[in-house]
Amino acid sequence: MLRTKEIDNVSLTKNLQVHGWSHLDAVLLAALTTEYPLLLVGPHGTAKTYLAERMALALGLNFRHYNASLINYDDLVGIPMPDEQNQSLNFISSKGSIWQAEFVFFDEISRCRPDLQNKLFPIIHEKRVIGMDLTDLRFRWAAMNPPSPDDADMNVGNGEIYLGSEPLDPALTDRFPFIIPVPTWDQLTRADRRQLLSAGQAISSEQPIEQDLVRLVNRCAELIPEVETEHHETLTEYLISLLDLLEKAKIPQSPRRARMLLHTMIAVHAARIILEGECASIDESAELALSYGLPQSASEVPPSPAAVLAAHNQAWDIASCLDDENWRIIMEESDYIKRVVIAEELGFEGEDFSRLITQALNVDQSEAQKIALATAMFLAFREKQHLTPAAWEPLSELAIRVLQPRMASMNLAPSDTNTWNQIKDFSVNQRNNPIGLSKLEANYVLSGFPHLWRKYDWQESLAKFREYISLFGISAEAQGA
């Protein structure tokens, strides 16, 4: 497959005079290509409506903007009147009715009355109204402010709570394959802010659009079947693992959403190929589509980006190991430190085992806990494994601080006196105790005085050290290290 980008050094959204949205170019192109419903979530004044207007203008479509908090159903469809035979209905409608619309934008949808929200459901999901097809309608986009929290005393800045903005019915939210938290002022670069303030805001059909958006949409549509053929199996396996991991992270998804994610990931990857060329990777496309495809992004408490990314990374690791059962077993464990234990049990060695060790050492934890982990792994694997220098170097550099014999003298600062008295009593008791790993534990505590214990609780860190010693099966003989 020849993969060359269709745009050179130009952002799709910047061409439409929407600044600060370049990171969303591929997602928006995928939404235009698939014609799937799209929901924009963000504070007022963040160009949600402006984006939709610019898109419709660039595509040459008949656009309708509806404020869902104000409209009545008659404003959409007109007034129904029976025909002369009383066998069907005709509608007396205005120019603003939905019948000839090609692109509709429901603004303030989170402020819509529940009864009207239910009537919008078939328009968004099926392109139908009162059982009749809207034959001209292609794009159904909507926008909302973040729902107001249940806790009215929540400590947030002025203007960030939108009283009256309610969460959408979950069934309605689940009909939007694309759910996009929009960039706010604090997320814009200085260059984007400058361009935003310099750009004219008037929309005119005479205003030139530098890139042919219709051509990009058509090219993306042509590419989607090729992308699906190439990546369908990998994405399927990835999504099976991903949804289980999201469930564990308390971000559950419906079976419908799973199928939507498969389609949006394929479309986003095709869009990235169009916009970026050969540098577009399928795993990054999957992550991008996932980030802007979760219904919880429209809830009062959006999912943690770190939790979503962690689930993505682990699911992708599992999908990448389809042909190796041992690797699949390891990747199904989310704890990077426990992966090392499992790998040892499965007989991993050399470069593969070394890579798992370096990943474990990079787990986000305190310096004291990292030293504890490195010491435990050094003692566990110094004679069992042929590790690469990339693993041995950080292990030894951290473990030597505990295992290397040395004499030290220092003048105690007044703030260190209480801690030292505790540690001194602990160390004396441990060294007089011949049972278990008492000497090793005393060495660990002494090695961290004073600088580590000025930052961390030495007793909590010791508890973590004991946990690692147990996890890696360090015996009392290791005290002779």
Structure characterization notes:
This protein has three domains: 12-149 and 161-189 and 206-298, P-loop containing nucleotide triphosphate hydrolases (Rossmann fold, 3-Layer(aba) Sandwich), CATH 3.40.50.300; 326-403, no CATH class; 414-480, no CATH class. 51% of the residues lie in helices and 7% in strands. It has 20 helices and nine strands. The strands form three sheets. The chain has a five-stranded parallel beta sheet with strand order 2-5-8-1-9, covered by helices on one side. The protein has a two-stranded antiparallel sheet with strand order 3-4. Strands 6-7 form a two-stranded antiparallel ribbon. Helix 9 packs across helix 10.
Enter the CATH topology name of the largest domain: Rossmann fold
Number of domains: 3
Structural shape: elongated
Low-confidence stretches: 202-208
Tell how many strands the DSSP assignment holds. 9
Q: What is the CA–CA distance across the termini?
A: 57 Å
CATH architecture of the largest domain: 3-Layer(aba) Sandwich
Mean pLDDT: 85
The largest sheet, given as strand count, sense and whether it forms a barrel, is: 5 strands, parallel
CATH first level of the largest domain: Alpha Beta
Please tell me how large the radius of gyration is: 30 Å
Would you identify the CATH H-level superfamily of the largest domain? P-loop containing nucleotide triphosphate hydrolases
- Neighbour order of strands in the largest sheet: 2-5-8-1-9
Report the structural category. Answer: alpha/beta
Strand fraction equals 5-15%
Number of helices: 20
Residue share in helix: 40-55%
Which H/E pattern describes the elements? HHEHEHEEEHEEEHEHHHHHHHHHHHHHH
